[in-house]
Design a protein that fits this description.
The protein has 175 residues and is an alpha+beta fold. It is built from two helices and ten strands, in the order ααββββββββββ.
Length: 175
């Protein structure tokens, strides 16, 4: 007789976020690519059932990184840098393609901002040209931002205009 016990293997609500971050850091290795599946994944399994869209995204990465094809947008937006101005954080990205957008032109979701108190709060975010401005009127002197930084974020919706989702990120590993 076999007994199956459901086990919760999540030790924190950020385990998958740290795992995704390690994959993102691996892009510093030459000729590597990554397909973000945060929008097509499963809430209880890091491996998405939707293999068709994941395969398409991996094929784009292979075309660009393995075969060196020019003119291919092979990834969604990847956080590059931040600047602080007037209690707002201005984010820059690589792989923006023809521009940043939100899925279905909805308000951007899943952004959080951190002040000097080291506490993250939900943030407002808007696209301005090729940057994203992030703020929370109650957070004075922001020091960090994170996007979709949890195991199963609720509908992250930052994309490039080619339809590829942004990789979850945090601007600092100190907060």
């Amino acid at each position: 007789m076999r007994y199956f016990v459901e086990v919760n293997v999540e030790t924190t609500k950020y385990d998958w976020a740290y795992f995704r971050e390690s994959q993102l850091k691996a892009l510093s290795i030459p000729h590597t690519g990554m397909a973000v599946s945060i929008d097509i994944g499963e809430g209880n399994d890091i491996h998405p059932v939707n293999k068709k869209d994941l395969g398409y995204r991996l094929a784009l990465a292979a075309q660009k990184t393995a075969y060196g094809e020019k003119g291919i947008v092979h990834s969604g937006p990847i956080y590059e840098s931040m600047k602080i101005s007037n209690n707002k954080v201005i984010l820059a990205f690589t792989n923006a393609g023809k521009g940043l957008t939100s899925k279905n032109n909805e308000e951007l979701k899943c952004f959080e901002i951190c002040g000097v108190d080291n506490e993250y709060s939900p943030a407002k975010a808007k696209i301005v040209k090729d940057k994203i401005i992030v703020w929370n009127d109650e957070v004075i002197n922001p020091v960090a931002v994170r996007y979709a930084w949890e195991n199963n974020p609720l509908r992250p919706n930052l994309y490039n205009k080619e339809g590829l989702p942004a990789s979850p990120f945090r601007t600092s590993d100190l907060y």
